Amino acid sequence: MGLLVNDILQLEIMKDAMVVAGEDLVQEKEVQWVSAMEMPVESFVRKNEFVLTTAIGCGQNVKEFEKFVQDVIDSEASALAVALGRHIFEIPNEVIEKAHQNHLILIELPWELRFSDIIEEVMLQLNDVNYKESRRSEKVQQELLNLILTETGLTCISNYLYGCIEYPIVITDQIGTIQAQSKDAPNFLEYWRGYAVKGVLPQRKPTLRSSHDPMIQKIQSIYIDEYCILQLPVIQVSGNTLGYLFVILPSEVLLDQFLTQYIVNVLEHAVTTIALWFSRKNAVEEAKSILHDSFVKELTSGEFTSWDSANSRAEIVGYNLNLPYICLIGVPENLKKLFQKNNWDEMAYQQWVDSMIHYIKEEIYYAAQSLNKEVMITYQQEKLIVMIEISLENKKESVTNFLDLVDRRLRSLLPKVVISWGIGNYNEGVLGFKESYQNALTALNISRNKKGIGNRVMYENTRIDRILLTLFQNQEMKEIITATVEPLVEYNKQRNLDLIDTISTYNHYQGNVSKTAKALFLHRQSLLYRLRKIEELTGLSLVDPDDLFLLDLSIKTWKMGQ
């Protein structure tokens, strides 16, 4: 606590001062400023200011004096000291009552006291307090720098800050993943990850504060359960946010009383120190990440021509290539929709996507560790490329168990995220990684075209689909297919009547009109009309096996080529 009103009243110069309102508050109200003020107050009085006045301009007009006092109250001043004897001879009871009701300390001063002498004495006290506060905060700054120079971890830094602030500390990266926490952190931290995924922590929208202190303006407050969480960004000189510092307060703590100049100074030194720690850590991790990502990319694109060159690079990044791997490619399909649904700031979209990919990769690593399997992951062109170790005796079971575990973990953490998976084959040799990647990419494209999003398809189960895809790539076949299917597509555009779905369902039920009508929720006559329209548009007969085969083949091949 800094200088209190009671400390000022104990000064020799204030021995004749008399408190007429708020006497019980003199041990609580802090003073940060002192000034002499007359009407009008406007915005010239600051919070926690000790105000001296002669009440000139009020005279014997009680209403004017009452308005003047109300303005001082609205300014959140600590105390109002009124010199009696020239412009006002006694403070009206109405004014004293107003001061009592609004928790303003009201003081009577003898006219003979010079304001300049009072201000000089108070300023000496304030300067002394500020000097001691400055020395305290400088000591904290020096200690934090020493922790950085000795390459101390963030946990030690958070515990040191806990000792300075006396409330639990949490330090996260820019997406809200906890990097360190002090002792005595509350139990609700086990739900922190869920809050981060939902965008509750860190808070993206600024909290408006009336303070002119630029440091206080950066502080955001989030209320969760019985806690008030103060959030400060850890910012580089370039302006990039590296992470966040959180102070966990009980919700009943008054922020204005907690955020003393000393606390604000400590927080400012803290975020500067943490920024240095993150800059050093990020430089190392970014270099490692680039090495890992580029290695997996080169591996799947077939840039290694020999086992020796691939193995030497693998050793550098900590991978073991002497194990059987299969490539999986996953695409998070609906991140943009989920982000827009929450009405978050579009400027934060890429950062949010990065956080989602981070969490997905974490779950993939966790699933691999749980199954005691090696894994290589990179995220390229909005695709997760995963090389997972398998058992050659039961390849299919290995992949299924792995993806089942990933899906269970993601359903718990990110229940609304939809991911499509393509699963490659196991291929031997250094170029087997490239072949497995291409297999997985083919399976992924077939899965999305044929089944839609959110499914998983194994390359070995796409033989028919690959034949159809190859047919579509033949120019002569493409012309036949287009000539057969195009009239149905155009009719759908003009009449909004999906004849392709109609004939696909008809073929699925092997030409059974009753079952087809029931599946499409149509009357029998409506279905027969559609079937006649298909024959009319395509020039093919649905009772001719060859025509029906051509139509079915054309539609399936056309879908593969989309």
UniProtKB/TrEMBL annotation:
- Domain named Purine catabolism PurC-like is located at 7-125
The CdaR GGDEF-like domain covers: 306-446
Instruction: Classify the source by domain of life.
Output: Bacteria
PucR C-terminal helix-turn-helix domain: residues covered: 499-556
Question: Residue span of the signal peptide, if any?
Answer: none
The family database entries (InterPro entries) matched by this protein are listed as: CdaR-like_regulators, CdaR_GGDEF, Homeodomain-like_sf, PucR_C-HTH_dom, PucR_C-HTH_sf, PucR_dom
Family assignment? Belongs to the CdaR family.
Q: What protein name does the entry list?
A: PucR family transcriptional regulator
